[in-house]
Amino acid sequence: MPEVIMTGDFTVNPETGLINPARLCPSPNRDARPGVGALELIILHGISLPPGQFGGPEIEAFFLNELDWGAHPYFVEIRGMEVSAHLLIRRDGDLVQFVPFNERAWHAGQSHFRGRSRCNDFSIGIELEGEDETNYNDRQYNVLSAVLKALMVTYPQLTMRELAGHSDVAPGRKSDPGPAFDWLRLYDAVEESREKKD
Ligand SMILES: [Zn+2]
Fold this sequence. Notes:
Elements: E1 11-13, E2 18-20, E3 23-24, E4 30-32, E5 41-47, H1 58-63, E6 87-89, E7 95-97, E8 103-105, E9 112-113, E10 116-117, E11 123-129, H2 138-154, E12 163-165, H3 166-169, H4 183-197
Parallel strand pairs: 3-7, 5-11, 5-12, 6-11
Antiparallel strand pairs: 1-2, 4-8, 6-7, 9-10
Helix pairs in contact: 2-4
Bound molecules: zinc ion (ZN).
The site of zinc ion (ZN) has 4 residues, from loops.
């Protein structure tokens, strides 16, 4: 049986586009959503910096354009990239918000979903600290399912059908969150938290 960790409930303020409770870490890598700016998709990602190493400050530094490119050979490959996500769920369950949901974060790159391109325009990006071949942990599934529940309450047009991996919207180019991510477990966790609420 997976360890059960109570994460409590999250709430999303539709005016500010902020989720609570979360650690706010504003990224400059954001701009206005074009057009009507409706949210129609949630994209799940996996990230670790350096790859396969967890717990350090590098992901947050990367999203704030403060990463020391010389600190690790891998960082040369991502030097100068200006990217972000709305949320990051760390291995310890810590939730970090970089961009308000009503603004555009820069996480999907070239991407397609149901015939539309430029998924950043209409999506929320959630990063899980991890890598493709390493199991994500109980805290992350618990926090992620509670976060999804809060998002789907605030933005009712978002359902579990509007949920995709980065690898789904950028096939061949991106592989995260990877085969280690257990989609069925996530679906069960979201269903369970809904049933508890009823
Ligand atoms: Zn990604």
